[in-house]
Amino acid sequence: MSGMRLLFYLAALGILISQTPARGSPEKDRQIFLDTYSKNLPDVPLSRYVHGSMMLSDDALSQYDSIMDFPPFQDAVDSGEKIWNTPFKNGQNFSNCFENKGVEIAGKFPYYDSDLEQVVTFEMALNFCLQNNNEAPVDFVDPETMGALSAYARSLSDGMLMQIEISTPDALAKYNDGKSLYFRRIGQYNLACASCHLTHGGHYFRDELLSPAIGQAVHFPVFRGGERLYTLQMRYQRCMEAVGAVPYSSGSEELNNLEFFHSYLNNGLPLESSVYRR
Amino acid sequence: MVSEAHHRRIFLKSALAVISSLIVPSVGYSRWDKNAYNKTEIVASVQSVGVINLADLREGGSEITLLTPKIAENGAIVPITVNSKIPNTERIFIFAEKNPQPLVSDYVFTPHVEPFVASRIKMSETAFVHAIVLAEGVFYRTAREVKVTIGGCGEDS
Amino acid sequence: MDKTVRFRVRVKDSIANVKAMIFHPMETGYRRDKNSKSIIPQHFVHTAIVALNGKTIMEVHWSRSVSKNPYLNIRVPGVSAGDELSISWLDNMGQSGSSVSTIS
Prior knowledge:
CATH superfamily of chain A: Cytochrome c-like domain
Mean pLDDT of chain A: 93
Number of domains of chain A: 1
Shape of chain A: globular
Strand order of the largest sheet of chain C: 4-3-6-7
CATH superfamily of chain C: Immunoglobulins
Low-confidence stretches of chain A: 14-22
CATH topology of chain C: Immunoglobulin-like
Largest sheet of chain A: 3 strands, mixed
Radius of gyration of chain A: 18 Å
Oligomer: heterotrimer
Order of helices and strands of chain C: EEEEEEE
Largest interface: B-C, 53 and 54 residues
Helix content of chain C: under 10%
Structural class of chain C: mainly beta
Radius of gyration of chain C: 16 Å
CATH architecture of chain A: Orthogonal Bundle
Number of strands of chain A: 7
Strand content of chain C: over 45%
Number of strands of chain C: 7
CATH topology of chain A: Cytochrome Bc1 Complex, Chain D, domain 2
Largest sheet of chain C: 4 strands, antiparallel
Number of helices of chain C: 0
Distance between the termini of chain A: 13 Å
Order of helices and strands of chain A: HHHHEEHHHHEEEEHHE
CATH class of chain C: Mainly Beta
Low-confidence stretches of chain C: none
């Protein structure tokens, strides 16, 4: 059924958010989310959460496995590999900008940069790399530049566990900003992310399974229908549009902080880049 | 991600030169048949590949394995697998009954390759997927229904 | 180098399980360009030939109902190391491509 109808019914039912977030620790928040999902999805191991709305259907997962065995979007990832490997005009490479040459690092993003006093996402770091090497930054929502580059660069961290650190009061403040947005009702449908993905994460609404927040942030970018690339922030934008809100931009402080909060919830889960979604 | 075998490119002098070296099967057309692929309705489509009388179609039973999803995640990319155990299988035809042109693909087998094929097809809506096998002049059929919620032929958001 | 066909071949008991992908839009002719709103013309591979050591072993006929970047999985018995497997394709606009994989 169409996403719009789904949201209309949820809004009409006046879905209440049962958990009010207290100003506690991120670990306590993550535990609240985990407890909610265990109630909604008894006996489902955490490892299945990464498959989102497919997690309860063997039929869906079998299609996923079949497509992922030889993905049709391999050409897009390959073009990203080419961008990553092509030296800048000054002779430097993307790999010089990252520790460990960019291998096994994406699980530490986003992080709070105390010099810049802002949250830095992996995609921002790719753009900083370009700018620091006198190259033009690329558009966060362009699938052929940032999309492809991110699809390849993130794959160098496939298997790495999400491990977001929040160790200073300033970082915590950004985390809490992201958390506030997560719980804020927005748009014409007056829904918060939490309305669907916390309270009803793991519940069916008609034939759609609402994916839990835990498991959502580790499998990006996605190729919907096997061909349309979405980064995590592009997906946030689409969700905001779906509830009738004007979306924040990819790379905006609001979405960076949201990604910071969301990624923390996903700590402990393995990253996988460039995956198939319907 | 995906590893690949070492390969090198051969330069085609002319694609027509390759096509002209094709094998010709015993019944029906051999080249890509525009006439069969343009039929817009399942019965005409099946007849156009050589099944003149639909009553002559035999049930494939356990001799033909057709694997499809029960509910396609996205109609633009539906994985299907067909395996024929019928001796001397020459041809396998795949139809998606409700597609604008129901004939999706066909495969011509020599004895040097197993009568097995897996591919990914587009389906416009919930429909039966039919696999028709041609062996020694006889047509056999099996079919499975695939439910489609996101149609695979047009633009979607 | 233009890689229009990607292979993955696994041999077991001299049967080659061949997985291949031809990178091609398989445009149906039903989609419209987002900006100009005009129909994007049909553009699809209609024929592919699989050959072993230069001899055709299988012929593939496709329509625009085959998914973008078409995937093909077939099984070829009786292969030996050094055998050359090739896939050549031709589309409705007369474009073609070809690639070879050597069985290891």
